[in-house]
């Protein structure tokens, strides 16, 4: 079977060492990680034109819902935050607050050059030069005006990670 939770080697090891006593915690961790990898619930934090591109991934052409990627509006229901667009100084406090409200484990995808380093507005007095100065970022998606395929591929690669 290709979709079994434990491989034959794992099952033999658990059976030898006393499965219920010593390896129950490892099994629970393994099952929890397996369940989390099956569905990705990103919280959208769209700030500019990259957010419009990100919204298209939920439309009928790409339809990320069929792959288990369902956008959530509440930070308490999501496990991944996608930051897309130019982050200003006034919005930085709100970004940090929303990040702190997310449940653990939490991950951040920075999408586009504006979210990565300020983009076209890098030298403006009101722009934060990258959202990684406010919150820790796990995945960077480079470039401006991201094609939808790249956003989908990053979500899929992150899901299989």
Q: Name the overall outline.
A: globular
Q: How many helix segments?
A: 7
What is the end-to-end distance?
21 Å
Helix-strand topology string: HHHEHEHEHEH
Which percent band covers the strand fraction? 5-15%
Class by SSE composition: alpha/beta
Main beta sheet: 4 strands, parallel
Low-confidence stretches: none
Number of strands: 4
Over all CA atoms, what is the radius of gyration?
19 Å
Helical coverage, percent range = 40-55%
Mean pLDDT: 74
- Give, in spatial order, the strands making up the sheet with the most strands: 1-2-3-4
Descriptive notes:
The protein is built from seven helices and four strands; from the N terminus they run H-H-H-E-H-E-H-E-H-E-H. It has 161 residues and is an alpha/beta fold. A four-stranded parallel β-sheet has the order 1-2-3-4. The chain is globular, with a radius of gyration of 19 Å. The mean pLDDT is 74.
Annotation keywords:
7 helices, 161 residues, iron-sulfur, translocase, NADH dehydrogenase (ubiquinone) activity, 42% helix, 4-stranded parallel beta sheet
Summarize the helices and strands and which ones pair or pack:
Elements lengths: L7 H9 L2 H4 L1 H15 L3 E5 L2 H8 L23 E5 L4 H13 L5 E5 L1 H5 L21 E3 L6 H13 L1
Parallel strand pairs: 1-2, 2-3, 3-4
Quick description:
This protein is of the alpha/beta class and 161 residues long.
């Amino acid at each position: 079977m290709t979709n079994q939770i434990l491989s034959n080697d794992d099952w033999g090891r658990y059976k030898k060492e006393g499965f219920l006593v010593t390896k129950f915690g490892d099994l629970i961790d393994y099952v929890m990680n397996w369940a989390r990898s099956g569905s990705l619930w990103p919280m959208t934090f769209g700030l500019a034109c990259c957010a419009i591109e990100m919204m298209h991934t939920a439309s009928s052409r790409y339809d990320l819902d069929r792959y288990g990627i369902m956008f959530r509006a509440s930070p308490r229901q999501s496990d991944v935050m996608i930051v897309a667009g130019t982050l200003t100084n006034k919005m930085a406090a709100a970004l940090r607050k929303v990040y702190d409200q997310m449940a653990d484990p939490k991950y951040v995808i920075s999408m586009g050059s504006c979210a990565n380093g300020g983009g076209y507005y890098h030298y403006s007095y009101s722009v934060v030069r990258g959202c990684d100065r406010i919150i820790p970022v796990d995945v960077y998606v480079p470039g401006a005006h991201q094609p939808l395929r790249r956003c989908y591929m990053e979500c899929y690669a992150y899901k299989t990670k």
